[in-house]
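Protein modeling request. Please complete all fields; requests missing the sequence field cannot be processed.
Requester role: graduate student
Desired output: 3D structure, token encoding
Chains: 1
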Amino acid sequence: MTTDQNKLTLLDDLLKLAKAKGAESADAVMVKGISVSVAQRLGKLEGLERSEGGDLGLRVFIGKKQAVVSSSDYSLQALDELAERAVAMARLAPEDPYCGIADPKQITTGSVDDLEICTDWEPSEAVLTDWAKRAEEAGRAVDGVTNSEGAEASWGKTEIALAATNGFAQSYGVSRNSISASVIAGEGVGMERDYDYATSVFEKDLPSPEEIGRSAGEKAVRRLNPRKVESASVPVIFDPRVSAGILGHLSGAINGNSIARGSSFLKDKMGEQLFDSSITIVDDPHRKRGLKSKPFDGEGIANKRSNIIDQGNLTTWVLDLASARQLELETTGHAARGTGGPPSPSLTNLYMEPGTVSPEELRADIKSGFYVTELMGMGVNGVTGDYSRGAAGYWIENGEILFPVSELTIASNLIDMFKNLTPANDLEFKYAVNAPTLRFEEMMVAGK
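Delivered output (448 residues):
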């Protein structure tokens, strides 16, 4: 792949062309990647894909007008045409009073310690094939599993370079390894499917393929013969593989764009206590081996660990430069961007700190309740906070998980859910957004 210096030199050349064509300021981003994936189903190779490609995006400014163009052609003639087209588009664009690159005083000039987010290791196709084979075989070996939707193993590496006419020019790389398996248990109309997967920066941090496959198989078998339950208002517990969704709803509600539009149910809640005082929610772009770690944000601004929720209180919006200007605040260093459009605010490695009780203790006093392992649909209203989603999982009686249930709907409001939330002590960093097992004191569960 292209060296860091070559990428930055190319972007610098592109910025000079843009300035020569009439741009007052500009920034440019390059993304280059390699990925390989292998899919297997029922013991046979079903897919083998390798892709290599790159793209670059140029954003130019004339006064308070901006335009963004992208290309995968890096030749000098193509770059010249790209710059000319971007400037011509900017001249015709409507004014945006909040657009613009960072002031030179705002950009980061220091370096960040090694985040351990990229390795030089590249697995062979034989290694990936072996991973997929072992994962599927382990899933199919679970007693009660009758079919397979397949297993997949993949690897990828991406290089990102960002430069701007304010003097910023840095680059970094990220790599990923993944294994997944999905199997089916039961027969006929009584079939149930489930899955498991894992992603990591370093291959040695992955669970074994056998663990992934076996977990998928055991989950599918446990879902067999689901029952119906009566509608009731009961405590609800979210398994860790769905609990992170709560943080996703929080993230969307405190996004600077939503706040600036006035379209968030939290728009008037800055500084208020949203959660119990024991709750802290952290965003950490510098977490070593984090799946969303990065040394700087998408506008060249320094990023840092922050408590989004501190002792239950909302402490900040999630801002890039444009949303910060609109709200008359300072950017929080949360800009993210691709090659085809301007930056937008986005969190990185978001997680809720663990509680002090085990998952078993969390449900011990529940006489009747719902343990959720799967959520369906997108019935969440970001303006009002109303929450209603299809769900499946297991019924709890007298603190014990007893039998599978499905075709239920759970409903509440996110404000109430935040206030009445208790985390267990089982936080694991498996995804980009992570939360432990969560208990909500009362939700409406609609059944038969």
